[in-house]
Amino acid sequence: MAAIESFSATHPGDPEPGDLIEIFRPAYQHWALYLGDGYVINVTPVGKAGAGWQGADGPLMQLLKDVVGSDTYHINNKYDGTYAPLPVEEIIRRAEYLIDQEVSYDLLSNNCEHFVTLLRYGEGVSSQANRAIGAIGFVTAAAGAFSLLGLLRSRSRERQY
Questions:
Q1: Nearest alpha-carbon partner for 126 in 137, 138, 118, 114
Q2: What residues does each domain of the chain span?
Q3: Among residues 12, 25, 20, which one has the least CA distance to residue 40?
Q4: Which among 11, 74, 112, 114 is annotated as catalytic?
Q5: pLDDT for residue 24
Q6: Active site includes 112?
Q7: Domain 1-125 has CATH 3.90.1720.10
């Protein structure tokens, strides 16, 4: 692995091996795990998009600057207060074992954030997915309520005639 150069002032911090890197894309956050020497491991859906985003390209070891591109990022070990990080050597060993292996990908239950938190903590979690699931549940409940109201109004009109 080659040493990382400071590629932009908009890319803050000096990540340490095992750190979670949150990358701010236009509509979502992408997650990677810092391996050291400028490299990260990350997983993306097959073709990076598609119906349901099922399946995944194997976890890739890439330069952080290539994964970030023109977006911004920061180090975000946000679950350290909830989960104890595994020893750095274990995190890196697990990550290196998975490079180019086939892994499953599901936007809501096994995404890039789940992948890196599983490596760091031994527990796959994603607040981004939890928010999406909550929003889906809210929309479903609201649609059900509106349907029920429509049905009740319809029956009420039938009784009047």
A1: 114
A2: 1-125, 127-161
A3: 20
A4: 112
A5: 94
A6: yes
A7: yes
Q: Are 40 and 92 in contact (CB under 8 A)?
A: no
Q: Residues of 78-97 as b/e, b for ≥16 C-beta within 10 angstroms?
A: ebeeeeebbeeeebbebbee
- Higher-confidence residue of 145 and 138: namely 145
- HEC profile of the chain: CCCCCCCCCCCCCCCCCCCEEEEECCCCEEEEEEEECCEEEECCEHHHCCHHHCCECCCEEEEHHHHHCCCEEEECCCCCCCCCCCCHHHHHHHHHHHCCCCCCCECCCECHHHHHHHHHHCCCCCHHHHHHHHHHHHHHHHHHHHHHHHHHHHHHHHHHC
**Pair of tokens at residue 137:** 């549940």
Q: Catalytic residue at 11?
A: no
> Does this model's pTM top 0.90?
no
Quick one: what percent of the chain has pLDDT higher than 90?
45
